[in-house]
């Protein structure tokens, strides 16, 4: 396996938890109406969420769910027992701060200069006063808050659709466009330049695993409350990604 292919797998790893398990608080009625209008407009233009490989996807989804239940969850129990919540939050803050170049480049490609300014100011303050980003000191500064930009969103700005929905082994749910976007983002992420290779893969793996650990409770909650777990996860994934495109 080539280094770039392995990097792609790691960069996309645990998206099942990172993307699909990302929960949102209950929106206000006006927000719900706006979201519904957006979804209806999307479906009118593109049809229902594209899933031309549903049969295969469902099989892979079942495999991934088993992996989460019987492999990742026990590991997560040890991990969360060893590292307290504040430490795990610090890890997440550090990795997010480190991903500043990815967000900056994509904001530039989308001509979102306001987000470029917010990202730069937030990165500078968190790096200098937040001990390299371990502490997110700009969290309570509304003027510096912005939604993250990635290359899939950049492709959407230039008119490229999602493509079909995919569920990949271990990697989890994505779409054709999101997979391409994640690979492109991985090429400019600072972690891709870490040497030696073993250190790079360890850091990328820890980043994805720490994010997955934070989202695991939400994933389990969605699973317990779902009539059709597969469909619920797909809906949440598309709603999350479509929500990013609106911001």
Kindly give the count of domains.
Answer: 1
Strand order of the largest sheet: 1-2
Which H/E pattern describes the elements? HHHHHHHHEEHHH
Instruction: Report Rg.
Output: 18 Å
Please give the largest β-sheet.
2 strands, antiparallel
* SSE class: mainly alpha
What is the helical fraction, as a range of percent? 55-70%
| Secondary structure tally, helices | 11
Shape, please?
globular
The counted number of beta strands is: 2
Low-pLDDT segments, ≥5 res: 1-35
Mean pLDDT, as a whole number?
A: 84
Strand percentage lies at under 5%
How far apart the termini lie comes to 37 Å
Give short descriptive properties of this protein.
globular, single chain, 2 strands, two-stranded antiparallel sheet, disordered N terminus, 247 residues, mainly alpha
Please summarize what this structure is.
The protein is mostly helical and 247 residues long. The chain is built from 11 helices and 2 strands.
Could you characterize what this model shows?
The longest helix has 29 residues, at 54-82. The protein has one domain. A two-stranded antiparallel sheet has the order 1-2. The protein has 247 residues and is mostly helical. Residues 1-35 have low confidence and may be disordered. The radius of gyration is 18 Å and the shape is globular. The chain has helices at 3-12, 15-18, 29-46, 54-82, 85-98, 100-109, 113-129, 151-157, 176-188, 197-225, 229-246; strands at residues 165-168, 172-175.
